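Blinded run. Sample ID left blank on purpose so nobody reads anything into the name before looking at the predicted structure. Input follows.
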Amino acid sequence: MAFQIGAWVGGPGQYPQPTRENVEAFQNMQGHHIDLISHFTLFDINDWNQTKEYANVAKENGSTLVVTWMANGYNAQDIVDGKCDNYIREFAKGVRSFGDEIWMRPLHEANGDWYDWGVGKAGAGNTDANVAEAFRHIVNIFREENVNNVKWVWTTNASNQGSGTTLTGNYPGDDFVDYISIDGYNWGKSQSWSSWQTFSQVFKKAYDALANIDKPLFIAEISSSEKGGNKAEWITDMFEQFRTNFSRVFAVMWFSQSKENEGDWALNTSQAAVDAWKAGVTKMQSTPPQSSSSAASSSSSQTTKIENQRHTGQWMLNYNNGKLHIQVASTIKACVLQLDYQGRILWQSPVQTFTPGKHSLDAPEAGAQSIYRLSVQQ
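Blinded prediction complete.
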């Protein structure tokens, strides 16, 4: 997969939402398109009509909405027993009518003690077994409603909290999950009980625990405090870890909203943090895994010279006389990036669907040698 960048984009006020304005503000801050847009939806309180507003924002932006679906007020057995079925079914019908792909992330961080479905929550009656069954129950309702445009995301917290919790015990099974993910935060010294942790210290235990689950893996929530260390250096190290010890990770979603009495999670708590993020994003997206990209180079003279054309077996990208020629073997959703040789994005086409066959795009002239790269979203 091409490495993807996402975020809970935050914004002004206590309860910001991923509105068009807030998404654009985050994109302007990071200097890059955002691939994945986070949204939190609460059972009963938020129906599909409310969620659809942000699904449309993501669609218009050429992004994918990632819905963290929170069953507040219900434990796992309530869901298994069908107490939420009407709400889930109506939501499923709405998602089906939307048509475009949405990622659904129900019952996240169940290895903690802070949510009603958490195995570690004292007296809630949740176990690894009934949490996994609740997840399957939700997916099965969507299948009954013939919803085919959802990717199901299962999430473990980076560490266990509460009696009986495990990192992978509530995994519902490969037939019910498309992607797996980890949530984790470096609290630094923002709390009396917390201390500074490196990216690896936060995530390695969970990352290793998921090694035997053969599903694409991403970081669904992440942030770092400024307190107790250097946030900018922490971010720089994070991106380096993605390229080395955590190379299985295909996407990262920053939680960019500071919370009073909790953590200074927003990305822009310092300009140094923003600059580190921008540099990391540029580096990751300019050199994605070869299996997820095809690249061709152009020169300022707009000749037919191809210095580094790559053929993946699924698609091919070729530059010739101001035109980009794309040939694909199967339907893909992708955009074309024009990069300079330092990896900076000079131009980006809209995300679009390419059907099997040959396609052509007009390419802007480059003032110096540049690389055109096909970035495939999966």
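Unblinding after everyone has recorded impressions. Residues 288-313, 340-344 have pLDDT under 50 and may be disordered.
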